[in-house]
Amino acid sequence: MTDLHVVDATAAHTDQLVTVIHHAFANRRTLNPPSTALSETAASVGAAIASYGGLLATIDGVPAGGMLFDQDGDVLGLRRVSVDPRFQGRGVASALVGCAEDVARRRGLRRVRLSARTELPETIEFWRRRGYSVVEQREVDVVFAKAMPLELTVPTAEEMREIGSSLAGQLRAGDVLVLSGDLGAGKTTFTQGLGAGLKVRGSITSPTFVISRVHPSLAGGPALVHVDAYRVGGVAELDDLDLDASLDEAVTVVEWGHGLAETLAPDRLDIVLTRGDDDTDETRELRITPVGPRWAGAGLNELVVVGQG
Ligand SMILES: Nc1ncnc2c1ncn2[C@@H]1O[C@H](COP(=O)(O)OP(=O)(O)O)[C@@H](O)[C@H]1O
Ligand SMILES: [Mg+2]
């Protein structure tokens, strides 16, 4: 058993981080222009830790990886993401990224961003696999970003509608939302709020079988296309609905029983609603995971509930 630990870097970790960064970057093939990571010193790394912090990973007490942070608005920047070559293939990089995303959430930041050299395809692939999207192409590198998920506890149906309505303010034509959760979890209730926020015509109800309904806007905005696919067995049946035709001009919401959402759209909000085992408890947990470049670029903002609360 090895013991992999990631800690928030403090001034006391400065020398260990400098060493890890040097080991990691010295091992990479020579880039043109070369990375400036090798010129990091105790002074520069110490200053970075003091300003925005960082992470240090250790395996059995030996420094194995690390990174530095910076912060710009609601974005957490990752810099000098490093794994000592002696510890490659041990999950150090993944652990570091997971912890960095936790740091972003703890700090109330909406996105994580970093740059990666285009000369390093395996690095590019690493970030893609972790849900990062290219938001900018530059001369020698690309900028990757990922929007952080939002988690909310929703005590009542009314507040569920308000959250849907609040989210509507962040949506535009072409957006796709995939709602997952058991029957009665609140998917339709959430969609009703969305419809109210988008100011669309017609009441949003819970049809009994696969059906897609278009609710035109009463305010010159995008229509809401509401699909209830709870009982749809697979993607083929969904394809029959020919959603692609309206996807660009509307906000499309698919109520979907289970987690097959991946195939629906590369840019989407995956929304999972869960209720507790206790039937007398009306509380729902809501988790919104933004996926794809659309959200990596914009981020998902906090949702506000103004009502009775
Ligand atoms: N916190 C809550 N959020 C959403 N719905 C709730 C909540 N508490 C109670 N409800 C009720 O639970 C039911 C949810 O039904 P519905 O939205 O049709 O679920 P689904 O579409 O997921 O099957 C509604 O009757 C709603 O009034
Ligand atoms: Mg429903």
UniProtKB/TrEMBL annotation:
Keyword Cytoplasm belongs to the record: yes
Keyword Metal-binding: yes
Keyword set, alphabetical order: ATP-binding, Cytoplasm, Magnesium, Metal-binding, Nucleotide-binding, tRNA processing
Sequence ranges assigned to domain N-acetyltransferase in this UniProt record: 4-155
Signal peptide region: none
Pfam families assigned to the protein according to its UniProt record, in alphabetical order: Acetyltransf_1 (PF00583), TsaE (PF02367)
Major place of residence: cytoplasm
Subcellular location: Cytoplasm
Family: Belongs to the TsaE family.
Primary role: Required for the formation of a threonylcarbamoyl group on adenosine at position 37 (t(6)A37) in tRNAs that read codons beginning with adenine. Is involved in the transfer of the threonylcarbamoyl moiety of threonylcarbamoyl-AMP (TC-AMP) to the N6 group of A37, together with TsaD and TsaB. TsaE seems to play an indirect role in the t(6)A biosynthesis pathway, possibly in regulating the core enzymatic function of TsaD.
The name this protein goes by in its record: tRNA threonylcarbamoyladenosine biosynthesis protein TsaE
